[in-house]
Design a protein that fits this description.
- By secondary structure, the protein is of the alpha/beta class.
- It folds into two domains: 2-58 and 362-400, Urease, subunit C, domain 1 (Roll); 60-353, TIM Barrel, CATH 3.20.20.
- 27% of the residues lie in helices and 25% in strands.
- The protein is built from eleven helices and 20 strands.
- The strands form five sheets. Strands 1, 2, 3, 4, 5, 18, 19 and 20 form an eight-stranded mixed sheet that branches. It has a five-stranded parallel sheet with strand order 11-12-13-14-15.
- Helix 6 (228-236) packs parallel to helix 7.
- The protein is globular.
- It starts with a strand and ends with a strand.
């Protein structure tokens, strides 16, 4: 007996099997056991789902978010114990938007005091994959403010970032996200409230030492980066993942490609510099750089990101994932990139950065049955998350919207 049969579906496997124009999926114990073309076999199933006039594809992956920390106060105005409720609410919002995997952050916050263990509990209770990156964050106010996961709820001094502190961050990190900020961030502040945003925060020697601490723990490290100088130092120090990567020259993109360093693209904002334009996304892609598009939820649209179909200052969240990806998708498709390849920027590529791609991110026998069923191809044909009708995680239907 099988647990779930999905049939009459157009299937984007994002795997060697390619796109199946009309096919079926058999799921048992949370995994795909059969991916076939045409009519399904006559089998006994606990549940059947007719996907006529719909398409099936792997669930979405947003590998750079702040839903359990900064977004709780930004969206729900919560503090104290209410932060946990707000964090769970934000995770649910992501799931309803078709996102089955998240790259979350615990960076510390001037007011929010919840420790690492609270975030882990929220993650473990959520019916989606959540990975957590721990680190420290420089906010570009005057004077510059420094917060860290080692002491949430307070401003700390740079001298507090000892080797032991970075060992703790490395030990508690599940994936390479914004573990360190090599430039001070504007965060969600007005630009005039963060006059030091973009300033370098560490010397090359300091970066090299921090990277070595993470690597000694067998952990990869990611960094918030804008501009060539920060990027070059991080690359020369042996860093693993670049977050944002705004305002980079062609020579730096070439170096990133040569070193095979993935870049998490936030095309709507995230630094003091103009974000990555669709043409720049294509430049990365053409050079062979592994790219994942992410929301950095919740993050305001940069005033110079005029390719994003949202007003400047709009707080971008999970519900806007498809919208912010649209300009880059359209540009790549216009350059002849296949639809299946473009869809990887919001699915398996993010999973790879989060160390989740061994058995997920594509529809193939043996992989986890994490998928969405949609009226239209996400981003390519629609930016409305209401077109995503079903969200399935580990073979279980978790979201079923009215058809």
């Amino acid at each position: 007996m099988y647990d779930l049969l999905i049939y009459n579906a157009r299937i984007f496997t994002l795997d060697e099997q390619g796109t199946i124009e009309t096919g079926y999926l058999l799921i048992k114990e949370g995994k795909f056991v059969k991916v076939g073309e045409g009519l399904p076999p006559d089998v006994v199933c606990t549940q059947r789902l007719d996907a006529d006039n719909m398409l099936v594809m792997p669930g979405l992956a947003d590998c750079h978010t702040h839903l359990m920390e900064y977004a709780t106060s930004e969206i729900h105005w919560t503090q104290g114990q209410a932060q946990k409720m707000a964090g769970t609410a934000n995770l649910l919002t992501a799931l309803k938007c078709g996102i089955v995997a998240l790259g979350e952050h615990h960076l510390g916050h001037p007011v929010l005091i919840q420790p690492h263990g609270v975030y882990k509990t929220l993650m473990n209770d959520a019916p989606l994959d959540v990975r957590l990156a721990c680190g420290c964050c420089f906010i570009g106010t005057e004077p510059m403010a420094l917060v860290s996961s080692i002491r949430p709820g307070e401003i700390i001094a740079k001298e507090d970032l000892t080797e032991a502190a970075f060992l703790e961050m490395a030990d508690k990190s599940d994936f390479p996200g914004e573990n360190i900020f090599l430039n001070a961030t504007v965060a969600n502040l007005p630009f005039d409230a963060a006059p030091r945003a973009g300033e370098l925060t560490f010397s090359f020697a300091e970066i090299k030492k921090i990277v070595s601490i993470f690597h000694a723990q067998n952990k990869k490290i990611g960094a918030h980066i804008e501009g060539d100088e920060a990027a070059r130092m991080f690359i020369d120090a042996g860093g693993d993942v670049i977050c944002h990567g705004h305002a980079l020259s062609s020579s730096l993109i070439d170096l990133i490609a040569e070193k095979r360093i993935p870049v998490v693209i936030t095309p709507h904002g995230g630094t003091s510099s103009r974000p990555t334009s669709p043409a720049e996304v294509y430049r990365f892609y053409k050079k062979g750089v592994k790219l994942a598009i992410a929301t950095d939820s919740y993050l305001p649209v940069h005033p110079k990101a005029d390719w994003i179909d949202l007003p400047a200052g709009t707080l971008v969240g999970p519900q806007d994932f498809l919208t912010i990806a649209k300009p880059a998708f359209d540009y790549l498709l216009g350059k002849g990139v296949e639809t299946e390849e473009v869809l990887k920027l919001i699915t398996i590529n993010g999973l790879e950065i989060m160390n989740l791609a061994d058995d997920a991110g594509s529809i193939a026998v043996g992989n986890k049955a994490d998928l969405i069923i949609s009226r239209k191809i996400p981003v390519v044909e629609t930016t409305d998350v209401q077109d995503i009708k079903y969200v399935i995680k580990n073979g279980e239907i978790l979201v079923a919207k009215p058809l």
